[in-house]
Hints:
It is found in: Mitochondrion inner membrane. Pfam families: ATP-synt_E. One of its GO terms (molecular function) is proton transmembrane transporter activity. This protein is mainly alpha-helical. It has one domain (1-63). It is built from two helices and no strands. α1 (2-47) packs antiparallel against α2 (53-67).
Amino acid sequence: xxxxxxxxxxxxxxxxxxxxxxxxxxxxxxxxxxxxxxxxxxxxxxxxxxxxxxxxxxxxxxxxxxxxxxxxx
Length: 73
């Protein structure tokens, strides 16, 4: 009985680790994509030194809403 419990706990740990890794990997992929978009946005802002504030605000708002959609839970 003890051996069976140990094997069950081992398998449960392996399954938990695999699912946790997949969840963290998806999160990191989203963060990496967001950082790349922010870098492109910063480069665009630097390239255009005399842009209107409203234009920059519009770009920023678009990036935020695309990456962090508001959902009700």
